[in-house]
Amino acid sequence: MSGERPVDGPTLTNDPLGVGYREREESITLTPLERQIAEQRGTGVSQADTALAPETELLTLNIGPHHPATHGVLRLLTTLEGEVVREVKPLVGYVHTGIEKNCEDKSYWKVIPLIERMDYAGYYFNALAYCMAVEKLLGIEVPKRAQYLRVIHTELCRIHSHMLWLGTSALDLGAISMFWYCFRERDNVLDLFEMSSGQRMHTRYIQIGGVAEDVPPGFVEKALWFVRQMPSRVDQFADLLDNNEIFLQRMRGVGVCSQERLLELGVTGPLLRATGNPWDLRKAAPYSSYDDFDFQVPVGTTGDNYDRYRVRLAELYESCKIIEQALEGLTEGPWITDDRKVALPPRHELATSMEALIHHFKLVTEGIRVPAGEVYLPIESPRGELGCFVVSDGSSKPARVHMREPSFINLQALSDMVEGEYIADLIATLAMLDPILGGIDR
Amino acid sequence: MNTPSEQSGQPGPGNTLPNAFHVTQPRTPEEFRARQLRARDMLRGDLEGADLEKFVEEAVVTTTLERALNWARSQTVFPMTFGLACCALEMMSIVSARYDVARFGSEAFRASPRQADLIILSGRVSIKMAPVIRRIYDQMLEPKWVIAMGACSSSGGVFSNYAVVQGADKFLPVDVHVPGCPPRPEALIHGIIKLQHKIKGRPDLGWRERYAADGSEEWPYGRAGAPHDVNLEQLIAERRALGSNGSGSNGLGVNGDARNLPLPEAGDA
Amino acid sequence: MPDAVGLELIAGELRAEFGDDAVVGTSYHREQACVQVDPSKVIRVLGHLRARAEHPYPFLASLHGCDYLPEAPRLGIHYELLNMRTVDRLRVKVRLDVDYPQIESCVELFPSAEFQEREVFDMFGVVFTGHPDLRRILMPEDYEGYPQRRDFPLGGELVIFTHNEPASPGWYR
Ligand code: SF4
Questions:
Q1: Which domains does chain A have, with CATH numbers?
Q2: ipTM of this model?
Q3: Which of A161, A434, B197, C96 might form a disulfide with C101, Cβ 3.0–4.6 angstroms?
Q4: Considering the entire predicted model, what is its pTM?
């Protein structure tokens, strides 16, 4: 061992990262337990005398960044004692894209497509959080129809995200047919997205002040057909998995973490609800007309993997309920605000109105000017509280855009969940944690 | 002894055979039955003379080992399970029931680089990930291919910033770029088929070669000082001649140079 | 949300507890309450807010940094506190100078801050003293510079379109 691990982080010198590269690498790869052993060896304490008997030899196993079970490019540095996980350290940053930096270089409109690419399974949520934050800075109201359309699309996106989660995590647990069933439903959702926006993923449908376009004729019928048949599909999924003894054994009582600890770690979303805490921003602080709809917040009891899985399945039913109510209550009216400083004027006005032409020109060339201020706006994404922090300096480009990504913060709970469990349960727990690496690394 | 093309029916984009396999297809069930009977007779040793000649003409294909190998290899490309970002979702859906890449022989995703032939770079490549990808690529066994899926891994996409490698061909030889953000699963399957053509030794020519294109909108073909002074008509005529005198019909080109390949006929590929 | 009056009450309470210079200022903007505190007292302020007798803020929703480039103390760090019972949010903000920014870590109080403080260190170069494991988290270990600072260049590459072609003929080959 060369060098001590910096105890309080890098010391305050000219270069806070002045510690040698090799030593820093060692400080990652050598876990405290290993260091303890190495120190004991160094001081000549015989193995038999110590608490660590010879058979408890530790093995450091590197999982990832390219590993199919990490749902992306997550790297887990695990310390194993036999098959039992003693310590796990997530190392992230392998898809760090610099989106937050890029956003500072774009006008407010052009940020939307970038920000959708953060959490790529819940892209509507990113756009919604950002647009609502900017709307808050601007102080504008969104028309009712736009709010309903936003709810419809975000809830469809929640179904999409949960389908992706169910398919891939069942695949991790060996249930390969779930993958095909779930991707069939996912494709149905994507068909709806394609209908309303023309793209399957990263649709840029939600716009500052409303939505980019009204839904085409036939969308409502197709969406109704989908949400009416979806509950029976979820029943099928539940039947397939709930009667599977292997699946149950890998889920029940595995990866438990207490509610208090989860709250300390900042965990939100289905992980927190699985422990019985009904914290859901759609109910607690309704945004975008969520208080118009009648739905319930499913909670679990013990907070093990099985509860996480059941909570997400129950959320699918609730999402279907919300979408159905929103589709039936969809009122006629504008789908974007008529504030001409924010939204493009309709095409036909351009031919007749000089003012509309000027607004159009200003919006397209320069973009929106947002009054100075800073806003943090949280919404409920499929993984928990997704907050968008926007700082405006009064120009047409945001001064700072930051996303409080639920997957980034939930990932800290992984080591609490799996320490002392088997390594196979690590994979199951990670699957039930549902991290999206694009959201973690941004 | 059926040739593979007889088994798989009409030649489609996925199972076109190299031009050397000039096999007449049985048109009717009766013809097919007649051939079956001939084959039975052949096996019994009853066939001789003109009948034997006819049988050989119908059922025996001569080719080089290398070409047969390339044909087989192109239809069993095993991609690696390797998802980087958003594009990985669309990469996963090519195996799903709707798209079913198994029709083209690439459904067996391998988790180990040692077993994979193809690495699909599905997403953005950050500077932290690039060395990892290079190492994974180095671990793959020859022959190996790379598809850059999506705008990000092809060129950096929308992310022109400090963290993203601006195009994966900075550190890897990329065979096929699939455009889109994300590309539809169909587009990725199209990319895989393009790769199959490439593997079969008939590289689908790039558009500049195919249309004998030089220059660009601002720099029209034929203007003085253009990079190449080539006569378009002459070039096409030359290639047609190559195709018609038979030397190009087996797709081998002249001197093995891909640029000298004949123009693809209508309906081909 | 505490309204404007509630925010002043909180500020008054903090002033009474930690001295007049503990609170630098308050702002109530777009229904969001923000109290700016002195960097040296932020941990004590957070601890106090976390464990207040009535109406505590025990949940740290988010911790992030920001670079207000032209303004004088350039860097800012925001702690988004939340009371889940009353769905009440309060932003605590500190401003730091860009030369050797240093602040106490709040991981002891809020374990959820661990990754987020590492991210702020990675992106803005703020050293959190007392953090158990302060390393870069998103960028490679040996990366130099703090990318989210506004004077850090965006990077990237010039895209060559066909209209740049006469300047560099044959670039596509
Ligand atoms: S090309 Fe688009 S969809 Fe693909 S990884 Fe890049 S941003 Fe994501």
A1: 21-35+52-91 (no CATH), 99-440 (1.10.645.10)
A2: 0.88
A3: C96
A4: 0.80
